[in-house]
Design a protein that fits this description.
Elements: H1 2-13, E1 19-23, E2 26-30, H2 32-38, E3 40-45, H3 69-83, E4 91-92, E5 101-103, E6 125-128, E7 135-139, E8 143-149, E9 154-160, H4 162-166, H5 169-178, E10 189-192, H6 205-214, E11 221-222, E12 225-226, H7 228-238, E13 246-248, E14 274-280
Parallel strand pairs: 4-7, 5-6, 10-13
Antiparallel strand pairs: 1-2, 2-3, 3-14, 6-9, 7-14, 8-9, 8-10, 11-12
The structure holds zinc ion (ZN).
Amino acid sequence: MGSRKMLSSKGKISDYSLEFKVTNGLSYYISSLLLEKHGILVVFTTRRGGVSAEPYASLNLAFHVGDDRDCVLKNREILCNTLGIDLKRMVCAEQVHGASVALVDEKAVGKGAFSIDESIPDTDSLVTGQENIPLALFFADCVPVILVEPKRRMIAVVHAGWKGIYKDIISNTLKLMSFDKSLDKKNLLAFIGPSIGVCCFKAGTELIRNFSARFNGQDWLQKDRIDLRSLAKRQLIENCVLPKNIYACDNCCTSCRKDTFFSYRAEGGKTGRQAAMAMICSQ
Ligand SMILES: [Zn+2]
């Protein structure tokens, strides 16, 4: 009797886990409960469902990688039409592997939607508390992190590669979000999308030396490989995100699963980008 009740409440109340979905041939990960319950969209795309040719096949969403511009635009349209998003309002950042965070409002709407040159410069993390502004960043191994405060209705999309993690971009993002005093860190949900796993992120001695000086313990190191996802989780927890509120796309190593994801390392640098996207829907 008791156990049945526990199971049903566990499943219903707090399972914002990412689910794999295929809609109109487009495959992606989404937190369905978050959308249903709070009207907040959190999506991580895969490489499947677009129109680009190799090595960008097929859902390359980034302009800067050498793909045909019309194909990228078509891919962005496919994605936005499938998810009910207005592409004209999408906001993107230049992504320079730095640690700068931008607060996005109505003035930034559409920046980077149709060209990299118009994206928000020198920025690797986007935050907004406003409705109907889709935030999108692009990835091929780096760790995508999406933060959501569902009660205050505030979101962030973070590009956390090894450089961003080293330079504390997750902490910078949470600091910016905390300027809003009505934001309660206990409510924060964090989603970690597809990225290179500890299975594949082999690092040189200098990088390991720098990381050892920067991060205590050894739980992030396996022989000569760095576990970026575990460091991202550590930084979230150090910044007051509750461990139970962190949802990772497990078994999503971009390098192991080249059939599903773009991987910069596994494909020698010439490949497409998948997106991490979030939006507070109008209520
Ligand atoms: Zn791997």
